[in-house]
Design goal:
Largest sheet: 10 strands, mixed
Keywords: Magnesium, Manganese, Metal-binding, Mitochondrion, NAD, Oxidoreductase, Transit peptide, Tricarboxylic acid cycle
CATH superfamily of the largest domain: Isopropylmalate Dehydrogenase
Strand content: 15-25%
Shape: globular
Radius of gyration: 22 Å
Structural class: alpha/beta
CATH topology of the largest domain: Isopropylmalate Dehydrogenase
Subcellular location: Mitochondrion
Number of helices: 12
Strand order of the largest sheet: 2-1-3-12-11-4-5-10-8-9
Number of domains: 2
Main location: mitochondrion
Function: Performs an essential role in the oxidative function of the citric acid cycle.
Family: Belongs to the isocitrate and isopropylmalate dehydrogenases family.
Order of helices and strands: HEHEHEHEEEEHEHEHEHEEHHHH
Number of strands: 12
Length: 363
């Protein structure tokens, strides 16, 4: 009798009235007052920055998201980030930023680097993945590049020892390795790959690997491996699906993240952020061309998807997960539908047309 009842139970289980899958999951239990609107520092930036940050503002307003922006005008040709902006970010803890132009040479420091050092935003995170409906050469790409953000060659820590001799300072920090493994652990990622050049940079990158190896022993459920940066680039363009979470020193991470973004479909929809112990700045993840060219600005055809997805990351950081889910779902619907896409994604739409479509797709 018991044996006969098993198939019957299986049939009953499949009936709608016996479907115990919840229609709406409990994402988190807020504390009293968690729904109060949060202040976020907004830096529109240069080039396409005002276009795409304006797009985020429109979507947040349409969703009635529990936040409001404190806007500050900052431009890449300034000598430094104004102190009032730094104080605003320190007060609010969170910032959304458009691209800032970085002068080439001339001794002018990058304001992007200044912000990261001033706020100790030591971890940069870029998520490179395939979006449904957007054809690319490689499928099943879902790579998170975590790079050290305040040290190494890319940090601007360099000086002229004597005329004609420039020395670049490169350090190593255990905290970026800890952050990478902690991210993988909390996000159910299975593997962390350390990217290095320790075969040549034996001391600096050797120390980086020692830190990664030591931290990896504390996370036995996460696979750990290492790869030399030049081989890494070759593997990225030939078999990117082998990578999961990648942790890198500063300069390599910038190159690896942009390569991974190009493989997954372009820098126009890769979200990212910079985080430290106390503050976070969210911006377009992959930096190549993030300020845009003059034509994009004049024609108002900049792709807002990257910053929209970065703002979804920001909403999760602020513990507003349902708003993040709604925004990401709406963006995916618009991209999958294919009717409204900017030129870099094979379409002809303006920024505003994409935004209108995203707002229409909101649940």
């Amino acid at each position: 009798m018991a044996r006969r009842s098993i198939p019957l139970l299986r049939q009953l289980w499949t009936l709608p009235s016996f479907n115990l899958t919840p229609t709406r999951s409990v994402t988190y239990m807020p504390r009293p007052g968690d729904g109060a609107p949060r202040a976020v520092t907004l830096i529109p930036g240069d080039g396409i920055g005002p276009l795409v940050t304006g797009a985020v503002e429109q979507v947040m307003e349409a969703m009635h998201a529990p936040l409001y922006f404190e806007r500050y005008e900052v431009h890449g040709d300034m000598e430094r980030v104004p102190e009032e902006v730094i104080q605003s970010i320190k007060k609010n803890k969170v910032c959304l930023k458009g691209g800032l132009a970085t002068p080439m040479g001339g001794g002018v420091s990058s304001l992007n680097v200044q912000l990261r050092r001033e706020l100790d935003l030591y971890a940069s995170l870029v998520n490179c993945f395939n979006l449904p409906g957007l054809p690319t050469r490689h499928q099943d790409v879902d790579i998170v590049v975590i790079r050290e953000n305040t040290e190494g060659e890319y940090s601007g820590l360099e000086h002229e020892v004597v005329p004609g001799v420039v020395e670049s300072l490169k350090f190593c920090s255990e905290r970026i390795a800890k952050y990478a493994f902690e991210y993988a652990y909390l996000n159910n990622r299975k593997k962390v790959t350390a990217v290095h050049k320790a075969n040549i940079m034996k001391l600096a990158d050797g120390l980086f690997l020692e830190s990664c190896r030591e931290v990896s022993t504390k996370y036995p459920g996460i696979k750990y491996n290492e790869i030399i940066v030049d081989n890494c680039c070759m593997q990225l363009v030939s078999k990117p699906e082998q990578f999961d979470v990648m942790v890198t020193p500063n300069l390599y991470g910038n190159l690896v993240a942009n390569t991974a973004a190009g493989i997954a479909g372009g820098t126009g929809f890769m979200p990212g952020g910079n985080v430290g112990a106390d503050h976070a700045v969210f911006e377009q993840g992959a930096s190549a061309g993030n300020v845009g060219n003059v034509n994009l600005v004049e024609q108002k055809k900049a792709n807002p998807v990257a910053l929209l997805l970065s703002s979804a990351m920001m909403l999760r950081h602020l513990q507003f997960p349902s708003f993040a889910d709604r925004l990401e779902t709406a963006v995916e619907r618009v991209i999958s539908d294919g009717k409204y896409r900017t030129k870099d994604l094979g379409g002809t739409s303006t920024t505003q047309e994409v935004i209108d479509a995203v707002i229409a797709a909101l649940d």
